[in-house]
Amino acid sequence: MDINIQPILQSWPFLLKALMMTILVSALSTLLGFAIGVIVGALRTYGGRFANIVLGFYVDSMRAIPLLVILVWTFFAFPLVIGHSINAVTAGIVGLGLHLGAYVSETIRAGLTSVRRNQMQAALALGMSPFQAIRTIILPQAVIRMLPALGSLCVIAIKDSAIASVIAVPELLRQTQIVAGKTFRPFELYTAAMLCYFILCYPMARGVDRLYRRLAHLGSS
Amino acid sequence: MTDDPILIFESVVKRYGDLTALDGVSLTLRRGEVVCLIGPSGSGKSTLLRCANALDPVDEGRIRFDGHEVKSTESSVRLVRQRMGMVFQNFELFPHLTVLRNITIGPTTVLKLGHAAADERAKKLLAKVGLSDKALSYPSALSGGQQQRVAIARALAMEPALMLFDEPTSALDPETIGEVLSVMKTLADEGMTMLVVTHEMDFARRVADRVAVFDKGRVIEEGAPQEIFTNARVARTRDFLSHLGWHGEGAASVSKREEA
Ligand SMILES: Nc1ncnc2c1ncn2[C@@H]1O[C@H](COP(=O)(O)OP(=O)(O)OP(=O)(O)O)[C@@H](O)[C@H]1O
Ligand SMILES: [Mg+2]
C-alpha cells in the first residue's frame, strides 16, 4: 500500500477549519451540558419532589433516546415546532448539550448527595442561605469528588461531536469525508482524523486524572 | 454575668416520627453565662442545639433569642444564625478551603465584609487560637485539635452573641483535648455566652456557671456544678455520673488537689 499525504497537505486549511469547528462544538456543548447538568442536578437534589419528578423525566428520556436521533430531531423536526429553521451548528451544540446535560446532572447529583449532611448544617449555621451553602460549600466538594467521572464526560463530549456530522455540521469527520471522497485517499485522511481525535482526548483524560490526584483531599469532608 | 436572658427554651418539644427527642425542655441562658449540658447518648442534647438555631424546627413550645422568637420558617432565622456560633463534634471544616478561607467565608458571603477586613479579622482569630502559622494550610493537613480550634475561630469570625458547642472534644485524641478546652476556657473568661454539650466533667466543673442534666428529652436536674457533681438530688444523675467514672465529692476533691 503506498501512502500519499499530498491530499492532506493540499487541503490542510480546510481540515484545520474543520478541526476548529470540532473544538468549538465540543467546547460549547460541554459548557451547555455542564450548565444544564449543575442546575438540573442541584434542583433534583434540593428542589423538592415536583422538580425531581419533572427533571427526572428529562434525564430518563435523554438516556433512553440515541444521541443520533436527538441530533436529527433537533435539526429536522424541531424547526417545524418553532416555525423557522436553525443552522446545523446551533442544532448540533444544543442537541449534544441537552444529551450531555442529563449525564452530568446524574454525576453532580451523586456528588452532592455524597457530601455529609453536617457540611450543609455548618454552612447554614454561619447564616448562609441554602443557595450560598450549595454554591460555595457543597457543590465545589461534589465537583472535586466527581472529577474523574466529569472528565470522562468531557472526553465523551469531544468524541460525540463527530456524530454531528450527520446533520452536516462542518466538523472534522464530515470535512474529512468530503476530502477523502474527492481525492480517493480514505486511508490517509481518516487516519489523520483519528489521530486528531486522539490528540484532543488523550491529554484531556490524563490531565483530569492528574488533577484529581492532586485535589482529591480537598473533597473529603 | 448579668440577669439578662439571651436564649430561652420554653417547653420545647421535638419529634422524629414516633420518637420524642425533646419532651418539653425549658432552659434559660443569661448573657455571659456558661451552661454545660450533660446526659446519656440519645437523650436529645444535639437536637436541642440544632433547635436553638433552627437547623431543626420545633414541634411545640418556643425558643426566644435576644428577645425574638426563633422560627425555622422565617427568613429572619438567618439573622439568628449569624449571631449564634456553632461548633460541631466532627469540626465540619470546609475541606476545599484553606484555613484562612474557612474563617473568612462567613464574614464575606453572609456579612458582606470586604476581603481585606475579613482576612484581618481571621488572622487575629488564628492568633487567638494559636494557629497563625496554619492560615494557608488545608484542613486535611491539620490534627483534630487544630481543626477544632479553626472551627471555633470560624464561628467567632461572625462575632456571635452566643456560642453553641456540641461535644467539641469527643472526636479528639486525648492529647489534643486540652488545647481545645483551653481555648474554650479563654472564651468563657472573656465573657462569651456558651451552651456546651460535653462529657468533660472536669471542664464543666471548672468553667460552667450551671450544669443541666439531660435524660430522655428532658432536663432532669439543673444547678451549679458543685451541686450537681457533689450533691445530685436525682438518682438518674448520680447513675449517669458514676457511669462516666465520676464518684461524687471524693473524686472531685482529688482532681482539685491535682490541679493545685
Ligand atoms: N434527624 C433525625 N431523624 C430521626 N431521629 C433523630 C434525628 N436526629 C436525632 N434523632 C434521634 O433523636 C434522639 C436524640 O438524639 P440526639 O442526637 O439529640 O442525642 P444526643 O443527646 O446528642 O446523643 P449523643 O450523646 O449520642 O450525641 C436519638 O434517639 C436520635 O436517634
Ligand atoms: Mg449528640
Q: What structural class results from the helix and strand content of chain A?
A: mainly alpha
**What is the number of helical segments of chain A per DSSP (H or I, 4+ residues)?**
10
Radius of gyration of chain B: 18 Å
Helix/strand order of chain B, N-terminal first: EEEHEEHEHHHEHEHEEHHH
The CATH topology of chain A corresponds to MetI-like fold
Mean pLDDT across the residues of chain A is 95
Number of DSSP E strands of chain B: 10
| Total number of domains of chain A | 1
Q: Can you tell me the CATH class of chain A?
A: Mainly Alpha
Helix content of chain B: 25-40%
Number of strands of chain A: 0
- End-to-end separation of chain B in angstroms reads 26 Å
As residue ranges, the low-confidence spans of chain A are none
Topology diagram in text:
The complex is a heterodimer of chains A (221) and B (260).
Chain A: H1 6-10, H2 12-46, H3 48-64, H4 67-82, H5 88-114, H6 117-125, H7 130-145, H8 147-160, H9 172-183, H10 186-215
Chain B: E1 5-16, E2 19-30, E3 34-38, H1 45-52, E4 60-65, E5 68-69, H2 77-82, E6 84-87, H3 99-109, H4 115-128, H5 144-156, E7 162-166, H6 174-189, E8 193-197, H7 201-207, E9 210-215, E10 218-223, H8 225-231, H9 235-243, H10 248-259
Parallel strand pairs in B: 3-8, 3-9, 6-7, 7-8
Antiparallel strand pairs in B: 1-2, 1-4, 4-5, 9-10
The structure holds adenosine-5'-triphosphate and magnesium ion.
